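Usage

Read records sequentially. Each one opens with the input sequence:
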Amino acid sequence: MTSRSFISIQAITLLLSGVALPTLAYLGSFEESDGYRIPGAGGLGNISSLNFAGDAQFYLNNLSTNGLTGIVAPGTYPNTLGDNNHGQDLSRYNAGQYGTGGVGGPGGTAADIADNSGLWRALAGGRLNEDLGAPVYMGGQFQRDYVAAYGYSGARTGSQVLNLLAYDQDMRYAYSLDSRDFDGTNPLSTSDMRIDLSFWTCPTDADDGIAIGVNTVAMSFRDSIGQILIDVGYTGDNLLQYRVGGSSTWQTTGISLGTQGWSEITLSLNTYANSVSLSARGFDDNSSILNGSTSVLTGELFGFDTANVTEIQWSATDVDGFKNFFDDFNFNLTAVPEPGSAVLVLLAGLFGMRRRRF
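and closes with the structure output:
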């Protein structure tokens, strides 16, 4: 008589689920279909204010007779009437939470929400600095502080990009990753996964006078207990920088990110091995070509056990420059250890446990 142990097809299917989960969604390409509004997007126009209590209110064109709006755009005085390119600050409406782009796009349309109650939140400076001048704004169209979608003919794809501008003071915003970013995977289920991601950036030349090595723009990838996994950014003269595991010291590379074209940054966050890999392709302004990929880090350890990856914080220093553009975020998630390997290991173990009885 022979007794055999076996794995059901259902169990193998469950183990294999979660391999290679590609998406281009909530962050995506910052198009209207991804949930990001500029007034000229398809003629959809500005977002009507619902006058939520506590939201900063600005007079339209500084004239009280025109009424109030809780949607303060980074365009002209201080709304976007007549300005098709400047979108509203992302902390003031349901940015990234509507549209059909990506997997699980819910549809719907742009809508006013209570300030800082969505996926995007102003933590310091930016829109919060602009609120200090409400209800009257006297600055020019580029003398603003914000994170917003921007209509740009040079977008890497589509017609819109993400733009960061810190004109009057340093700013910091937070973005909560969503299951739509991760193709249906809940960010709170990413503590044993490899998250491969890439995005494109095009910085400004206006901050070249900043001291060498000083960071001007950065993204901070954080887990659910607030640990910093890696900071990625660039200097005033657009050299790629990074910091691993919450280090206070920026490491400056020799990779130059051009201002005349798009540069690609690629990260691999391994929350099982507690490590990160980083590479980049910089655009060469002199030759107008995209350079080949350069590896910066391979399996660099964080130095601590990683929780779930749930947030990106964005920061920019007080620089009189117009653009710090981002476009085309892409995420791929893989269970670690990879399910195929896990199945083989489990099968080997079960066959080793097989017993024969006579």
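Summary fields computed downstream for this record:
- The chain has three helices and 22 strands.
- The two ends are 6 Å apart (CA to CA).
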